[in-house]
Amino acid sequence: CEKEPSSYTWIYILLGNMLRGIGETPITPLGISYLDDFAKEEDVPVYVACLHTIAMLGPMFGFLLGSLCAKLYVDVGFVDLGSITITPQDSRWVGAWWLGFLIGGVLSFLAAIPFCFLPKSLKKLEEANNDKVSHGLLENMGVTRKTPPPAKSKPRKWLRKRWKGDFYTSLKKVLSNRLYCTFLCSSLLQFSSFIGFLTYKPKYMEQQYGQSTSKSNFLIGLTTLPPVSIGIFLGGLIMKKYKMDMVRATKFAFTMSFLAYVVTLSHFFFGCENHVVAGMTVSYE
């Protein structure tokens, strides 16, 4: 038997997704900490909501871009499109799935450039005002501040040992915090259901309603993600307006999650009959 040719494209996609994950992961934890440290306390919920809203708008534009790329033939730029006899509605059609990776990669690189110009450290507004007042008083009194001598560099080995000790101590404290673990479990359940819904809904629309891949992606990006983004942004505004503490925010989250669960139950009452498939749902005769 002749050995069938195999493609190793999946390795490049795997490595690309791995690098993308490494690059985008610090934005959420470090970005939220950055906002929490240097923004006013009442403004933090709105800023965090804006961060998550933009994170949800990204997939929406990704679906729209995927819809556009799926209309182009997979070998666009390499073959004469006039010689292609099939259309995107044909089951044999393969869209230019690779084009979205190139466009997204270039845009991600351009979006990362402004981060290089952010200052290494910022001061809170109150601390900055206090420093200005103190500096002005010292200047009026004719007192000059002496710069402290530079700290002696400590051995790297000692720093490494201390870093490991502090890291494991902090990790143990975090994992033993019942409130944090409960929040983590609820987030896992929410995102698991949301990702499953988002992953299989385009395929369901293709099979059940006879839509093309391009149109399915377009409809998903246009109808599913914008309401989620609006909900996140409105949640941040509501938290800022009513100045919710931890307990009130938890009650608010529980109420919204319960209402979402009730609305989601209505999906069980909507649906279409399965397609007639010869040999599966009906006989060949």
From TrEMBL:
Residues annotated as transmembrane: 44-65, 95-118, 179-198, 218-239, 251-270
Any one of the GO CC terms: basolateral plasma membrane
Keyword hit for Transmembrane: yes
Keywords (A to Z) from UniProt: Disulfide bond, Ion transport, Membrane, Transmembrane, Transmembrane helix, Transport
Gene3D superfamilies recorded: MFS general substrate transporter like domains
Membrane protein topology class: Multi-pass membrane protein
UniProt similarity note: Belongs to the organo anion transporter (TC 2.A.60) family.
Protein name: Solute carrier organic anion transporter family member
Organism of provenance: Galbula dea
Gene name of the record: Slco1c1_2
